[in-house]
Structures are given as C-alpha cells and as structure tokens.
Amino acid sequence: MISSRRMFVALLITALAIALPQLIRAQAGSHAKEEQQVIQAEKDRFAAIVKADEAALNKLLADDLTYTHSNANMQTKAQFIADVKSGAIDYVTMTPNESDWKVRVLGTVAIVNGTANVNVIDHGNNLKFKIRYTNNHVNRGGSWQMVNWQSTRFPQP
Hints:
Number of helices: 3
Largest sheet: 7 strands, mixed
CATH class: Alpha Beta
CATH topology: Nuclear Transport Factor 2, Chain: A
CATH architecture: Roll
Shape: elongated
Radius of gyration: 22 Å
Number of domains: 1
Number of strands: 7
Order of helices and strands: HHEEHEEEEE
Strand content: 35-45%
Distance between the termini: 78 Å
Structural class: alpha+beta
C-alpha cells in the first residue's frame, strides 16, 4: 500500500507536470506582449524626435530621464526637449534598424539594444552617422517611458 506521503508527492509531481508548461507559456506570452509595447514606444519616440513633437516626447520620456548623446553630451528630459523644440538639435532623420532590436523585459523595466541611422543638425552642424544604443524603459501606470539613453557612434568609413 502506498503511504499518504508518497501519494501526496506523486500527486504534487503530476500537478506540476500539468501546470508548469501552462505557466511557462503564460509568462512567455506576457513578456511578448510587453516587448511589443516597448517596441511601439520606441517607434513612437523615434517619430516624435524627428517631428519635434513635444507632447509625445513628454509622454514617452520619463521626468528623471538621463539622455547621453553619442558625443558624450548628457541632458535631462527638459534640456533635451527644449533643444529639439527650439531646433538647436534638429533630427532630420533618425531611423532605427528594427531588425537589430533586442528587447528584454525584467518586470517593470525593459532594456533595449539597437542601431539607428541619424541625420541631425546639431547647433548648425549637419551630421550623418550610425549609432548603437542602449536604453531603459520603466512601466509606470501601464505606460512605458524611457528613463535612460546611451548611444555610441560607429566609426566613419
């Protein structure tokens, strides 16, 4: 006769064998949805930068943003938006290479790695270059906001 302890262990193992794959699929699906939300926030942010859309940037960028440009200049959200709005920094084009995106969601934080082609008029200097970047988003109240940006220019050919 099987002891009650062995029966409990057997039932527990059976229950885990049935439930665990479903939990893993549900978790993977949750991250896939969040990754898509972050990707959409990335697309919206790139478009807002080129359009100098202050309202969209205020929504997509966190108040505690640290924005480090590829020339090592660091700005706050207010400084970055002011420069974009005034045209001091005019992003003529800023085109992400979506096939390069790598998004990792870790709870309420997302890390994005990618590359983009940039044409910017920075205080009168027309610059064209490619960057590799890392940024971080935080989910606050159901919306993903970028809290950190760091980019590095690829060497010019």
